[in-house]
Design goal:
Blueprint (H helix, E strand, L loop, with lengths): L7 H47 L1 H4 L6 H14 L4 H12 L8 E5 L4 H12 L3 E6 L7 H13 L3 E4 L5 H10 L4 E4 L13 H21 L6 E7 L23 H20 L3 E6 L2 E2 L8 H11 L2 E6 L7 E2 L2 E2 H14 L16 E6 L5 E2 H12 L4 E6 L14 H7 L7 H16 L5 H4 L8 H10 L6
Parallel strand pairs: 1-2, 1-4, 2-3, 4-5, 5-6, 6-11, 7-10, 8-13
Antiparallel strand pairs: 9-12
Helix pairs in contact: 5-6, 5-11, 7-8, 8-9, 10-12, 12-14, 14-16
The structure holds 2-acetamido-2-deoxy-beta-D-glucopyranose (2 copies).
């Protein structure tokens, strides 16, 4: 009898093969699990990296260099293209009030001078604040980054974006039901308007419309809006002190014209959509963390470095005068306007009833000749200015400003209390600390042996407002 064919070999082989297949599929499974693990790890690392870059204050204690500010911006903007759960959580955290009945305020131009101070003051009393700023280079962006750092230190997120970005604005209002908008983003400066007119139209007209559009048609509820107009709308008005009832139809600069246009546009959005809108006409605001394009600021720099400054006389040979208004007083005015703002009345682009429309002067009610301002600086800096006095060119500056603030006083108890000498002393104190310049005599008294001012400059940078 022939032995049965030995199948054991084939069965063995088959068993071996199936074993190999099993092993392979297990390996495959293990390999894919490994791959998944690695991908997850990589994603986590990328997320952590983005998160960390989003918060430079945790990393850097120095002035951001132009380069780092730039890379920061490009990363941030890719991240802020409405980036997911983490982003929304951070936005909500910043914007949520911590006191009962607190406001939730979107502050545009939050890394600007007035924006920074108002954001801090709101946060301090328990309101929620979310900042927006495009960090443009009209003046030194590193100063804006330092202000952003200061705000971040106080738990305020400032998103790096432009107010012309309607998609972002819509997203923000979807994520947070802001009760108020404090709209301070703008192209400032009277003389720069002759060099770059389009930037005024883009910011002060198109940007304003972009914000009003979203607030009127998408925000639910519609927020109440308080925004920065300007004392420059009084233009060639000669009746003093300037009252809200005076003519504002003769602007002397394109800057003033775009702010005046803004007041007209505000009327339209109030009329058609029921937005509650308050315009604030600021009078030469100054103080710590101020704007380097303003005279008191660049005069300080020039006096300290021994460069000449140019002072203007009017065509009648009189000193130019300004109603210099200290930042803390202006902040009180802004908060007063927010607190007394009525609710908007529309929804989804439909007006449901009449809404509040207001305009107020926020000045100091006490004009000072610019020459006197320079004398105060000379004393504080213990150094004489080299002065060029010339007749004022026809570039949009007006010879004299003086605010009548009766209306703001009546409606929200606005009462400026800081005179120019006091305010400039606080400014100079901040300036020497921030820029780390040698302490001038008048400031140095009683501070000897406490190390260089430069060291204290770091403090100012990591988070204290010199004046607050
Ligand atoms: C919006 O502003 C940015 C600058 O922040 C500019 O680059 C961009 O062109 C502007 N877009 C529009 C539509 O004006
Ligand atoms: C200030 O303005 C109010 C109206 O808001 C007016 O009644 C008052 O007379 C003005 N004061 C001066 C000094 O012009």
């Amino acid at each position: 009898m022939a032995p049965p064919p030995d199948t054991s070999k084939t069965t063995k082989l088959e068993r071996y093969n199936s074993y190999i297949r099993r092993v392979n599929s297990t390996k495959l499974l293990a390999a894919s699990t490994n791959l998944l693990f690695r991908a997850t790890l990589l994603t986590a690392v990328v997320l952590i990296l983005l998160f960390t870059l989003h918060y430079p204050p945790l990393l850097a204690g120095h002035h951001p260099s132009a380069a780092s500010a730039h890379s920061h911006r490009s990363l941030l903007s890719s991240y802020s293209s409405y980036g997911g759960a983490t982003w929304e959580r951070e936005v909500r955290r910043s914007a949520t009030p911590r006191r009962r009945g607190g406001l939730s305020v979107l502050v545009t131009g939050a890394a600007g001078f007035v924006g920074t101070h108002c954001s801090l003051a709101l946060k301090k009393r328990g309101d929620g604040v979310l900042g927006l700023d495009n960090f443009n280079s009209y003046y030194d962006p590193s100063l804006k980054r330092s202000r952003q750092k200061l705000l971040s230190h106080h738990g305020i997120l400032v998103i790096d974006a432009d107010i012309n970005d309607s998609k972002l604005l819509i997203k923000l209002f979807d994520v947070v039901p802001f009760s108020h908008v404090l709209h301070l983003a703008a192209q400032a400066g009277v003389r720069y308007a002759m060099r770059n007119p389009q930037s005024y139209v883009a910011s002060n007209v198109a940007g304003l419309v972009s914000l009003f559009e979203v607030a009127a048609k998408h925000a639910d509820p519609q927020p109440a809006i308080v925004w920065a107009s300007s004392s420059s709308v009084y233009g060639l008005n000669t009746a003093v002190p300037f009252s809200e009832l005076h003519r504002t139809d003769r602007p002397a600069s394109l800057y003033a014209a775009t702010k005046k246009a803004g007041e007209a546009i505000a009327h339209t959005y109030n009329h058609i959509y029921g937005l509650s809108i308050t315009g604030l006409r600021f009078f030469t605001v100054y103080g710590p963390w101020g704007r380097p394009d303003m005279a008191y600021f660049f005069f300080t720099k020039a006096i300290l470095s021994g460069n000449a400054i140019t002072l203007f006389k009017t065509r009648d040979g009189v000193d130019v005068q300004r109603d210099f208004t200290y930042i803390d007083d202006v902040v009180q005015g802004c908060l007063g306007a927010l607190d007394t703002a009525g609710k908007s009345t529309g929804t989804g682009g439909k007006k449901r009833g009449p809404a509040q429309l207001r305009v107020y002067n926020l000045g100091n009610t006490s004009p000072v000749p610019v020459g006197k301002m320079v004398a105060i600086l000379e004393e504080l800096l213990a150094k004489k200015a080299k002065k060029n006095v010339v007749t004022m060119p026809r570039n949009g500056d007006v010879p004299y400003t003086h605010a009548n603030v009766t209306l703001a006083q009546k409606d929200f108890k606005y009462r400026p209390t800081t005179d120019l000498a006091t305010g400039l002393r606080r400014f100079v104190k901040w300036y020497v600390e921030y820029y780390g310049v040698a302490a001038p005599h008048a400031q140095g008294k009683g501070k000897r042996g406490k190390g260089s001012v430069g060291e204290k400059g770091k403090d100012a940078n990591t988070g204290r407002v010199a004046s607050a």
